[in-house]
Write a structure and sequence with these properties.
The protein has four helices and 38 strands. It is α/β, with parallel strands linked by helices. It is an enzyme of class 2 (transferase).
């Protein structure tokens, strides 16, 4: 697929600097770009690569235009421009191209128009696949599940019974939606399984990374809001509610019945305890451990940065003496107060 700079400028709301008839067909980095490709500059630390780029055009902001040796698309947010051009030039194939002969589809399933289903996929009784749904090879869709228009599932995704997914969602390979929550009751030294009777409700425009697991609710539902993005290997426990447009990075864990607000950003390897609420607009940096409710938006951290082993050993030795040090400080404060009197 080819676009002239004039066509791209119209779609991006950008301004052309240079020859607007130049055609590009793919994206590349500033350093790796060649003729016929378009690059972008959104981070000032890559500005030094601009002068030597071989790109036919570069997406950049007004303040870097003077350093550009080639044609440019000028806009206030070059990174958004890059994302939009990537969508236009995306060559990713569909998860499936038709309904494969080896797919097993129950006769009671409601299959919409332009639905594609890959090899060896199973579509169970009562399933609804809306118009434009694409199901990759080896997927399992459980009884009475509903998948909204234009939602795409890559290979080997499992969607359990009664799960409801909105439209324009994307689920990467190996993800499991609607598996049992971790519900057990202690019984004379053994664990008695509690059937999970709720389901998972996924909103519109949700993206779910590879090998991510979303548990179904125990009684009420697990709910993923509109526009939520979940990275690879994220664990969402039963009855969690995630607000619209929240982002969760890889290997993070959200325990049961936690309520996460809208427009939150949860970095990698964050752990959030269950049965508490997180306000809208919170940001948690990597490896944060969230053990109590957060009522105000802001940036929260607790993970300890990496350091040389010798420094860590010294720090760890001092951590073990913190209680003793606190008692000494308390004693010194009392003595100081007596002296001041």
């Amino acid at each position: 697929m080819n676009y002239t700079l004039a066509e791209l400028a119209q779609k991006l709301g950008a301004k052309v600097s240079g020859d607007e008839t130049v055609t590009v067909s793919s994206l590349a980095t500033l350093e790796g770009a060649q003729a016929g490709q378009i690059a972008f500059l959104a981070n000032s630390k890559y500005r030094q690569s601009l002068a030597g780029t071989g790109a036919s055009a570069v997406i950049l902001s007004e303040d870097t235009l003077a350093d550009c040796p080639t044609n440019a698309l000028v806009m206030a947010n070059p990174y958004m421009g890059y994302a939009l051009v990537a969508q236009l030039l995306d060559s990713t194939p569909a998860p499936a191209k038709d309904i494969h002969a080896s797919a097993v589809i129950d006769e009671s399933a409601d299959i919409g128009e332009n639905v594609t289903i890959g090899a060896n996929s199973v579509i169970s009784a009562g399933v609804t696949l809306a118009n434009g749904v694409s199901i990759g090879a080896g997927c399992f869709i459980g009884e009475n599940a509903v998948i909204g228009e234009n939602t795409r599932l890559w290979a080997n995704v499992s969607v359990y019974h009664q799960v409801r997914m909105g439209q324009d969602c994307l689920v990467q390979s190996g993800s499991v939606i609607g598996s049992d929550g971790f519900g057990y009751a202690p019984n004379q030294g053994q664990w008695l399984k509690i059937p999970q009777l709720g389901t998972v409700v996924v909103g519109d425009r949700v993206e779910i990374g590879a090998s991510t697991t979303i548990d179904r609710g125990a009684l009420e539902n697990t709910v993923i809001g509109d526009g939520v993005i979940l990275d690879n290997q994220v664990q969402i426990a039963h009855n969690v509610i995630i607000g619209d447009n929240t982002a969760v990075a890889g290997c993070s864990v959200i325990a049961g019945s936690a309520v996460i607000g809208k427009n939150c950003t949860i970095a990698g390897m964050v752990a959030i305890n269950g049965h508490m609420e997180i306000a809208d607009g919170c940001v948690f940096t990597g490896r944060a451990m969230v053990t109590k409710a957060i009522k105000e938006p802001g940036v929260y951290s607790s993970g300890m940065p990496c350091m040389p082993n010798k420094e860590w050993n010294k720090t760890n030795a001092r951590i073990k003496k913190l209680d003793q040090m606190a008692q000494r400080i308390k004693t010194l404060e009392k003595e100081l107060a007596e002296i001041k009197k």
